[in-house]
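Intended use. Records like the one below are meant for learning the mapping from a protein sequence to its folded structure. Do not use them to infer anything beyond what is encoded.
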Amino acid sequence: MTLAEIGEEVVVCRACDLHKQRIYPVVGRGPEKVRLMIVGDWLSAGEEGGLPPGQLFGVEQDRMLARMLSAINLPVEEVFIGNVIKCAVPAIVQPQAVHVQSCVSYLRRQIVALAPEAILAMGMVAARVILEKSQPLSRLRGRFHDFEAAPGVRIPVLATYHPTYLLQNPEMKAATWADLQLLARQLGLIPQK
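Structure written out for the chain above:
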């Protein structure tokens, strides 16, 4: 199945009640051949519900992510960026486990279609869904984990903080920078220590 076919399914999805409050579907963005896939939690439209089309994590969050990628010499255009939850929803809506379960098959199929060299799981929901672990993000970050995309196909996954969290907790930027350097070494973007 191609990314485009998965995207077509996402656009018409009615698997859970989030579609009733959906501002727009968030399929993800990026080329079909990537070294890195970034997965966030979900796109929240802010207090007023207004959100320019094309956002993946949010206006400021997308800018921050682009700066983060630039800092490790990885153009944002060469990365696939998506979310666990495939609906952009108003800020008053807090996705629940049932919504995650409705979306997780889309995410898993996207991972298989992309077959990236590595996955960066940004945020607690993304980390827990991909790694199938319930530990806090602070205990999952800082090292690579294996994700079995298909029988015999393992992809290294690095968990770190979501840009939304970093905007609210700037003191966590240093830990995230350490994670990004680990990722850059994994991808051969900077020399190994």
